[in-house]
Design a protein that fits this description.
The protein folds into 2 domains: 103 residues, no CATH class; 78 residues, no CATH class. The chain has 212 residues and is mainly α. It starts with 6 loop residues before the first helix and ends in a 21-residue tail after the last helix. The longest helix is centred in the first third of the chain and has 28 residues. It is 42% helix and 10% strand. The strands form 2 sheets. Strands 1-2-3 form a 3-stranded antiparallel sheet. Strands 5-4-6 form a 3-stranded antiparallel sheet. The chain is extended.
Length: 212
């Protein structure tokens, strides 16, 4: 159904357009400033989120042993809006026994957050490596794709979230890289060996570290 506009309606529409075009310069400046402030806030929030979000591993200053920690990213992002970002822990593998500590380990995260992030440590560890079973390069690791896993000396394969952060470095010291497809095959082989016949991969009878 069509709508016929009369002169009053056309005049009102033209007035609206003219007002938009001739908007006072002060209002335009205010809108631009507001948009810039929103952009800066969003940039700082997202920066804090990506920098500190996820499991981390630090060296506990008390016993000099690895500890798995997580940062309160909401607090870091909120305080970062004022320019004076403040970090605090939201979890630690030594809690609740050592809850209430001084959180001196935060200095390690402040100085090198990427070196403490579990996902960053793992990505660097896989770089240039091939799958221990199929021999295919691990390649680039993307956030939305299935991640490669690790093959431990007891022939078990583990996904990233199954490795306690405080045991990450010890695990990687003796593990081999395994692509996700081979991880699925290995899991099936361990849980249901009677159902799996896979001649495309080497036998693990001698362990993942045995020569082939």
């Amino acid at each position: 159904m069509s709508t016929r506009w009369g002169k009053p309606q056309v005049a009102d529409a033209l007035h609206s357009v003219v007002w938009d075009v001739n908007m006072p310069n002060g209002a335009v400046v205010l809108i631009a400033v507001a948009a810039a402030l929103v952009g800066i806030a969003a940039w700082r929030l997202s920066g804090a989120w990506f920098r500190y979000h996820g499991r981390m591993v630090v060296t506990c200053p008390e016993n000099q042993q690895p500890a798995g920690v997580s940062v309160d990213t909401r607090h870091a992002a909120a305080t970062g809006l004022s320019g004076a970002q403040e970090l605090r822990l939201s979890g630690c593998s030594r809690w609740p026994e050592r809850a209430g500590c001084g959180q001196q380990c935060l200095s390690q995260i402040e100085n090198a957050p990427d070196d403490c992030l579990v996902r960053s440590i793992l990505v660097r560890w896989y770089a240039g490596k091939n799958c221990a079973w199929c021999g295919q390069p691990i390649g680039d690791i993307h956030a939305v794709e299935a991640k490669p896993t690790v093959l431990t000396p007891d022939k078990a394969s583990m996904e990233w979230n199954e490795i306690p952060a405080e045991r990450l470095r010890d695990t990687l010291a003796t593990a081999l890289p395994l692509c996700f497809s081979c991880h699925i095959a290995n899991t099936m082989l361990r849980k249901h060996p009677e159902l799996v016949i896979d001649r495309s991969r080497p036998s693990l009878s001698g362990g993942p570290h045995s020569p082939r």
